[in-house]
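Q: Here's a chain of 463 amino acids. Please give me its 3D structure as tokens.
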Amino acid sequence: MSALPAKPGLRHSVSEWNSNNHQLSDTAEHERYVSNVIRQEGRSLRNETNCKTTWDESDTSRRLSDRIWDVARWKDTLEICAQKVDEEMEALTLSKEQTEQALAATAVPLEVSSECLTLRDGRRGYELVTDPVHEQLRKEVELIERVQQVLQQHIDKAFEQLCVLQEARHQLTADLQNKMDALDIDMTCLSLTKKSPQISLKTNPTRIPPGSSTPQEWVQFSQYNVAAAEEAMHLSQQMREDTRLTRAQLQNELDTQRRATEFALRKRNHHEEQARDELEWQIKNTEDEMAEMESDIHGLDADLQAKTASLKLAHTRLENRTNRPGMDLCRDEVQHGLVDEVHQLEATIMALKQKLSEAQHSLQKMKLHHSRMLQDLSRKQEALSLEQRSMNTRTRLKSPSCTDKTPVLLVPLTNSSGRSNLQLLAQDVCHISELGRDMTKGETWNYSSSYQDIAATNGESVF
């Protein structure tokens, strides 16, 4: 029988086989140990990361809640401040309207005073005097012009302050709108969970956006806006109070000056009526005297004619007696009596002519003065008529007037979700319509009041 052929290959010994078995067992145990360690570490890591993630998510939610509370608190603060600014703007606008009404109300008094001055310039002759009425009217015109200037300055200041308040309101509105948008975003972030369908991985989410601010800068920005608005409101309140006091003071000055002017006008009217009545009395007496003088002149003329006839008679007798013949041409008692009669008649005629001339001259002077008095009476009546027209013109200062309040337009402010949370004042608050209002609503003076009481009120003497 033939031998089997030997198979090629490396053969190991039993010891190598045993060693290999031990090596495989040791390696398996080592790998299982390592695997067990890794598994334990993985479980520990999973537990640790789960806790860490859960804690981080909870801490982030807490921080979001705190941030939402801070933003909501500042939002409420800004809303309250914005509401106060709106109220202050409305109050300042109303004060500005009242000042404009007061300014418009000075147009009628200025027109009345100027018209009175123009009317009184129509006086003629000695009636055109610079009396207390002229001085008071001139003072009244100067006072009204000064009042208009002061009121216009307050209106300009109120307009500038309204612009400052509007700017502060705009800053508050922008900050408030940002707060509301940020609040919506943070509330949306707080409502998201791991199961929300809106979540996804983003590109470089940890980047710092340009224009980012620190929490300190965030707080300081809102604090600055609120502080600026409060300072503007404080200045506006002071301005409104100053304007109110100024209006009251100027109104008192105007009323005082108006009463002084009307008192001077009534006093001057009284004096002119007295002068007119006196002149009318003088004219009447002069006319009576002129009538008597004319009657006496007629009497003097008649007597002169009679004396002339008597003188003619005496002259004729003397002339006829010169024709006596011879010794009968005697200077007898008749001759002496006729001569004395002629001398007496000539003296009488001369005296009558002298008195007639004086009477005619006096009558001519009275007629001339009578004409002057009539002319002066015409001027006095014209001046008195102008004074009456001036007093009637000033009655326009007591006509009542009403004022209307212009409504302020408001627009809603909404956040990104469409919710309306605040009313904002419209941008165009600077153009306000002017309404007329009469400057006086004082008492109506009674003409029958005693001049002593009126003078005591105005600090003047009566006559």
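Q: Can you summarize the key feature?
A: The longest helix spans residues 215-321.
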